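QA checklist item 7 of 12: single-chain prediction sanity check.
[x] sequence parsed
[x] length recorded as 170
[x] structure emitted
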Amino acid sequence: MKNTDRQTGTATGRMIRLAVPGIVLAMLLATAPPREASVVPEGIAPPEFHYQIENRADPFEPFITEKATSVTNMNEIVDEEGPLTGMQLFEPGQLTLVALMQSGEGNIAMVQDFSGKGYVLTEGMLIGRRGVVSQIKTNSVVIEETARTRAGKKIVTEKVMTLKKEEGED
């Protein structure tokens, strides 16, 4: 019989120990002074709130974009950012070599675009996104294009623009 009383007594003791803090909390809440509601004086309206969206990020846009999670190709050619000027606006394939001249300062080549507008090329001049006029020969212009990959590898290619003969020439 002692074992049964001991088990019952222990269970009752646990219940009393758990119930006491709850009763104390209920008494404290019942005796707390009531809160006063904030009252806005008559004739004065509360200030209106306006959310400024300018220069703030969209809160619903995900932090990780599809581009950031995609696997990058280390052999992909990366172009340098910056404005293109002068002959950099034309790729060599868009131009036709029409004349070559020799002068005391060096050789000069004349090219024209699809609309027939002419341009002058000299050695060392930038052409296209990655090209430099490396040589002007007696019947051709050699353009050296240098590209870099994401891994930093340097790729150099040569493009040659040749002077086309007129129909009557041999």
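[x] summary fact logged: The chain is about 20% helix and 30% strand.
[ ] second reviewer sign-off
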